Amino acid sequence: MSIKSMSSRPLTSQSMVSTGLIAPKSARGKTALRRQIQDKSYFIGLIRMKINELNMENHSLAKECEIMAKEEARIGVYRQKAETLARDLKNLTTDLLTYNEYVDRSRIDEQLSSIKEETNELKHENEAIIVNLENDYTKLRELESTWKANDNKLNEYNKIIASIKNRFNEAQIVEFNMAQTMNNDLSKDCHLLEQEIGLWRARKNALEETIIKEGNLVKIELIKAFTKLHSLEKQKNKLLNSNDSEENERKNLLAQVKRDNNYIDSVQTKINASKNNLAEVESEIEFYQDGDKWSKFSDLKQQEGKFSEFMNEYHQEKQSLLNQTETINNEITDTANKLSRFLKYLNGIKQIRDDEIGVHDVPSKMIIQKRQLELEINRSMQLKEKSDATQNLLTEKIAKLKEDTKMYSNIDQMKSKMENKLIRLKQSIEEHKRLIAELKSVNDNLNQQFSAVQTKLEKDEGYQKILSLEEQLASILKINVELQESDNSEMINEIKASVLDTVKKYNQSLIGF
């Protein structure tokens, strides 16, 4: 292998300083030619140079990461400070609002005692709200604990039921499933009935609230009526003492009469509305007494008495229908045997007659027998259809009876539930009766007060004068209406006469004379 000379080896375009590789010195101490050879040392130098560059970049990036981490920590601190400052600003704004309110009140010359009382009331309200929240929280914790305990109990019961169910036979499993389905159905019925009871209770509470509100409204209206009476008496005294003209007195009295009549009408309408509400409450209580639930309970009792009779009748009907089906089946088999015999006989006769005479010379007796056989076949088909229909009816009745037995198998439990419901209904009816008695007493008191007010007004001379003036005004208005009608009728007659004259003139002009 020949060795290449230095001049024939490849040169690089890079400088020696940039690569870090310098040519070796000569014996004289001078460096060799300033060129670099592309051999192993050259490439190692390049790799070292790149590694140094990468190390420098990593070092700079690490410094930048440290700076960024410091900045992020500083930003987090600033954020916390901003949040605290925002809270402080919110609190200070509320304080400023309260201070401004205090300044406004002090400008209005409001006393400090009232402001202190309001602040104390707000403090007490806040304390009460805190106590209520704590109580609600404790109740919620108790409910959660009870819920968990009930869940644990349910899981234990389910495990016990599963262990007992594994010991059952197939028949016992079927009975258990039937009982479980019945229990689910009854629980659904109980849930629906409880919902109905809740609705009735809510309705009762709503009625009580409306009754209380109406009673308060009636009291307020009575107070207004008494104040109105006092004001009317004052106005009457003023009218008597004043020396105004008769026309002004008449106008004032008429206006007062209209106002009083409107007020009396409004009071009467309110009393009638309260009476209507009482009547509605009484009708609802009567419906609640003699409602559908009482009728359902009585129907259940009657069905409980008639159930044994129904079962006896059912067994008798079942036995009779089974006997009928047996007889029908026997008749069908007999008719089928007879038909097979007759057909064999006919086929034999046909063969004999074909051999002797021919096919078309069949006697009348054979035709009659054929018709009889067709009739018997039709009868047998009808009997078969009847038997199928009766069988279907029997299956439907049996299915219905099974459903009824499932429905009324647990009558004692249903009876106990309905009795408990009746007791609750009676209690609610007694409460409604008590409320009605209270309302009646309130209504009687209101009627007495209204009658007393009415008698006072009737005895009052000013009121009598007002009534007489009102009657006079009504008569005047009536006369005015009659006069207007008469004026209108006269005007209409005049217009009619003028129209007729114009029509006559027009006709004369058309005719020519």
Characterize this entry briefly:
The protein is mostly helical and 513 residues long. The protein contains 9 helices and no strands.
Report the helical percentage.
over 70%
Largest sheet: none
| SSE pattern, N- to C-terminal | HHHHHHHHH
The mean pLDDT is: 72
Q: Would you report the number of β strands?
A: 0
> Strand percentage, roughly?
under 5%
Report the structural category: mainly alpha
Distance between the termini: 162 Å
Name the quaternary structure.
single chain
Q: Radius of gyration in whole Å, from Cα?
A: 57 Å
Shape: extended
- Return residue spans where pLDDT drops below 50 for at least 5 consecutive residues: 1-27, 30-35, 358-362
How many helices in DSSP terms?
A: 9
What do you see in this structure?
GO terms for molecular function: beta-tubulin binding. This protein has 9 helices and no strands. The chain has 513 residues and is mainly alpha-helical. Among the domains are: 176-289 and 429-459; 306-409. 1% of the residues are buried.
Architecture blueprint of SSEs:
Elements: H1 16-19, H2 40-107, H3 112-167, H4 170-241, H5 246-289, H6 292-356, H7 364-407, H8 411-459, H9 461-511
Helix pairs in contact: 4-5, 4-8, 5-8, 5-9, 6-7, 6-8
What are the salient characteristics of this protein?
single chain, 513 residues, mainly alpha, 9 helices, 88% helix, 0% strand, extended, disordered N terminus, beta-tubulin binding, IFT74, Spc7-like protein
